């Protein structure tokens, strides 16, 4: 893949050079000029052709060399890593000796699709990434312990990179059929340099005899938290509402987190609900790499949860995938599985609906109650028009069928797997935010009231206040909501703020349909395709 691109890139450059040479040949005029021009065109054609053939040959060469060959011992002197370097799993480490920044985060043993390889999540130069090698390390009691094993790596830049200088990438190191899976791997730029990174290899397969993950087990992945993220109520709502929606586990990445949210996450981590990984990526966000290298995080999270959870949702903190007829997402997917063949589905896509924050709060929500602090209770007006799939949509992946995860859709599945576009009558993505193009004009777009999330409101309020009370002192959270000021009587009945217990009135444009979903027939099964980068 990368090599083909590389080839095309070279070919284009060659064409540009040929054009640049053209004015020089124009010394003679008239027909001569035309003749030399066509000669040049022919030359260009052969030049481009030649480059393509050459790249093909190089590619074959590379394929042959990627097979996990042991380098001859005289070539591989294998200086040991520094004594103070220990193997890490899920922390940015540098590959030294490269001209440009090259960093690695985590390593997985991936034996799907007939290959055996170490798949490393990293970040490097988007165009023409530098050549690197993988060095395998075995435990001291292993017969190959002192054997030098270094293989050339293949760097596969992750497709979603917004044309910035750096990009998330996979570093792939193939193992031979009978080669033992290393316990630790280092990525090195030159054979004789001391490695400056050691990645503990995470096995992707289950331990022998372990049962497959519960098909209802759902993990949630969130892109790196940044700007000293510190909104404790929003975080608790996210954790507790997603738990009600069926999430068993959450993975977060710590670029920068504020003190209260840090404290909350530590509490959830201590109870086994959250994995929090450091994210000290030494690349300038948006200038050098897209949004703190989020595509490295999304893919790390996908592989980290593979075979531990049957389902992985990739969402942001202001987004919720909300089913309309089922209470949980696993229930929804199980129900879908009865209606259509979802056995080979690699992902389920949900269309985006903006709930703009500028629209007024729901009048059914008590202004002085806890509900008024919960985004999903307060904000029930949404744009009527949903975005089509792949534009701002989010998805739930079946990680074992996915090779490369993107932000809004899966870029690459294992052969034979594809995406299922879930019909909006079954579930949509609720996205709570301000107008996406700035200003307030978005509130003029046509909208409906959608109280689907109110089904969780009461349980969610109870759960969030319970957690808040437990953590208030330790995490210095303060008061969850301000009670009505003294002396101000509660609003008289019928004055526009009815008590929160009142059920939503009938006739809502988007109230759940009591007769059950009717959009089942309209569910589309899409074949995997190569979508354009958005
Ligand atoms: C490890 O030791 C080397 C020198 O022995 C030093 O330069 C390096 O900073 C140390 N690294 C860490 C992570 O302590
Ligand atoms: C792996 O297989 C190759 C040939 O298939 C053989 O030469 C080599 O000795 C084997 N290595 C191990 C460790 O079994
Ligand atoms: C997040 O990372 C920062 C910087 O590395 C660190 O100081 C802080 O303790 C981390 N927070 C948590 C909650 O782990
Ligand atoms: C999910 O919703 C469908 C449609 O209303 C319903 O038939 C099905 O029983 C629900 N599944 C569960 C587990 O609640």
TrEMBL record:
GO terms for molecular function: glycosyltransferase activity. Residues 507-520 have a biased composition (Low complexity). This is Glycosyltransferase family 92 protein. InterPro entries: Glyco_transf_92. Its EC number is 2.4.1.-. It is an enzyme of class 2 (transferase). It comes from the Eukaryota. It is a single-pass membrane protein. Residues 482-506 have a biased composition (Pro residues). It is found in: Membrane. One of its GO terms (cellular component) is cytoplasm. The chain crosses the membrane at residues 37-60. Coiled coil: none annotated. Keywords: Glycosyltransferase, Membrane, Transferase, Transmembrane, Transmembrane helix. The lineage of its organism: Eukaryota, Metazoa, Ecdysozoa, Arthropoda, Hexapoda. Belongs to the glycosyltransferase 92 family.
